[in-house]
Amino acid sequence: MQKEEERLSPSPWPQSITMDICKVPENTSKCTANTMPMECFMVLSTQAQKISITTLCCLFGTLCTLENCLVLYLIFSSPTIRKKPSYLFISSLALADILASIIFVSSFVNFHVFNKTDSSKETFLLKLGGVNTSFTASLSSLLLTALDRYISISRPSEYKSLVTRKRAWVALGVLWVTCVTISSLPLLGWNCCTLNSACSELFPFVDDNYLSSWICLVMVLLASIVCAYAHVLWKAHQHVAYMGKHQVQGGKQNARMRMDVMLAKTLVMVLTVLMVCWSPVLVLMIYGIFVKLSIQLRRVFAFCSTLCLLNSMVNPIIYALRSKELYSSLRMAFSRFRRQLRATGDSPEAESTHKSSAIETVCEETCIT
């Protein structure tokens, strides 16, 4: 029992010593080993906190991975769905959420629960860059999806010529290259150790200026998504009012407009969940730039970080409930799965009996003729 408590302790040093070494003197570099060791960022102090974090991470991470893998399977197993640019953007979102869940859960649990530190600063920044890339790509994929809906509902007659499959792949390529580049900047030298500048109190080795820049990027992405969907909802409201006033029936055009409105409402739900899950983390990040965070607030930040996984877990559920095409693809997948189960359930003896009876029937018919 004593060994287990030692293994789950937040640091190898006594708590009083840890509290002393974590006090960073003013007007000094926060990257030296004497002022900001890695143990200072291990804020979970009790076994109950660690069990809670582990449960949340494993639950959200496992469900997120399984659900988003299902979304990717449903999209790329359907020849019709995978050709549509809209679902290419959704597949990029699902891929980003899968990577975020795997990298975040493994790194977060190893660091905060098992208190394992990396062998070098570069290894830690590489893992942090992976998490940063995944979450930034997730937000950027939502922005592309919002722009896709914006073009679809504002310029429906030109949508197919403007948003093509080739342009969608190019946009996704630019998106992922940009996210990887931005997230790799701390590893490439924009960190407080290389610059001998002030480190963040939430992330080891991360420069405060880089964290501020990343927060600004996230805020710009969120603001752009909000503006795009505000315009989509305004256009949708105008369309519904026009249809109700003039009783216009436009066949396929109206059917496509109704589909666009439904997808817009679906993605607004996704955006709402995104804002709810990300707001606590962003608020604490911004607050930590201007004010020194207490260990209680940093502990709250650790728990709030798991809300990002909750967002990634909820997205596929919204797609399955709101998208008729994905729901239809899911039903077809279950039907194929049931047929395979029935096929594997037939025993070899039953198959041989069926074949022999068929041969006997053919022989009897031949004799009769």
TrEMBL record:
Q: Where are the transmembrane segments?
A: 51-75, 87-109, 129-147, 168-190, 210-234, 266-288, 300-321
Q: Give the principal location in a single coarse category.
A: membrane
Which subcellular locations apply to this protein? Cell membrane; Cell projection, Neuron projection
Question: Which Gene3D superfamilies does the entry mention?
Answer: Rhodopsin 7-helix transmembrane proteins
Please provide one cellular component term from the Gene Ontology annotations of this protein: plasma membrane
Q: Listed GO molecular functions?
A: cannabinoid receptor activity
According to Swiss-Prot or TrEMBL, what is its membrane topology? Multi-pass membrane protein
Q: Where is the G-protein coupled receptors family 1 profile domain?
A: 67-319
Pfam families membership: 7tm_1
Keyword vocabulary terms for this entry: Cell membrane, Cell projection, G-protein coupled receptor, Glycoprotein, Membrane, Receptor, Transducer, Transmembrane, Transmembrane helix
Recorded family membership: Belongs to the G-protein coupled receptor 1 family.
**This protein's name:** Cannabinoid receptor 2
Instruction: List the source organism.
Output: Apteryx owenii (Little spotted kiwi)
